UniProtKB/TrEMBL annotation:
The keyword S-adenosyl-L-methionine applies. Belongs to the class I-like SAM-binding methyltransferase superfamily. NNMT/PNMT/TEMT family. GO terms for molecular function: methyltransferase activity. The keyword Aminoacyl-tRNA synthetase does not apply. The lineage of its organism: Eukaryota, Metazoa, Chordata, Craniata, Vertebrata. SUPFAM superfamilies: S-adenosyl-L-methionine-dependent methyltransferases. This is Phenylethanolamine N-methyltransferase. S-adenosyl-L-methionine binds at residues 28-29, 34, 50, 55, 107-108.
Amino acid sequence: MPAIDVGEMSGENTSGTWSHRDTLIDIGSGPSIYQLLSACESFREIIVTDFLEQNRVEIRKWLEKDPEAFDWTSMVKYTCQMEGDREKWMEKEEKLRRTIKQVLPCDVTLANPLDPLVLQPVDCVFSSYCLESACNDVPTYRSAVKNVGSLVKPGGHLIFAVILEETYYMVGPHKFNCLYLTPEIVTDAVKGAGFEVLWSQALGFTFPLAICDAKDTFFIVAKKPSKSQ
Ligand SMILES: C[S@@+](CC[C@H](N)C(=O)[O-])C[C@H]1O[C@@H](n2cnc3c(N)ncnc32)[C@H](O)[C@@H]1O
């Protein structure tokens, strides 16, 4: 998750709201923690989730410093360098380990993606490249955006990193299908889920065809209206 100042984008005075950024849920984390390296500086609690038990096991291995855990060191060092001090990487790893409080099963096709667990809605829900691999068609995608959006509290934020115009991606020799999305489909689904879009941008990344046929990566930040609005 990139360091995005939501308040700055929306023109809001965040001095009052930042201190209330207690909980972030990452939906469809995979076996990965890279997307949370900056987020752990802003949230007191992070909940990671994934559909697959194998992925949740990998994250637990990293949290427990299992010698067989994937080595994220180079990514952590790079993130620290981007944040201004590469030497802080060990501190950052410890901070993220402390901040991840739960590793939960999740299915974005369910009305409550964390079913059977019922959580209080949280300050922020983030998801990178998950819904487009979980959904086979646009109606299912729109409904998944609503499902995930239901985990955000009024006044809270929903942030998606999305792969654009991709139909497949490779993990080693294994090919996975991906739902073809455009910025318009994503923006419309987020608005349809009742959110106000604060900011969105395609980043201009291109990818080798050996990995996937994606055309770009798109970020969108949206806010659920407060109850009083
Ligand atoms: C392309 S990976 C993205 C992983 C990670 N967010 C990242 O940025 O690298 C897609 C993830 O979505 C998860 N996934 C697939 N179907 C899902 C579903 N129905 N509900 C929740 N997660 C799902 C997969 O297990 C996988 O970890």
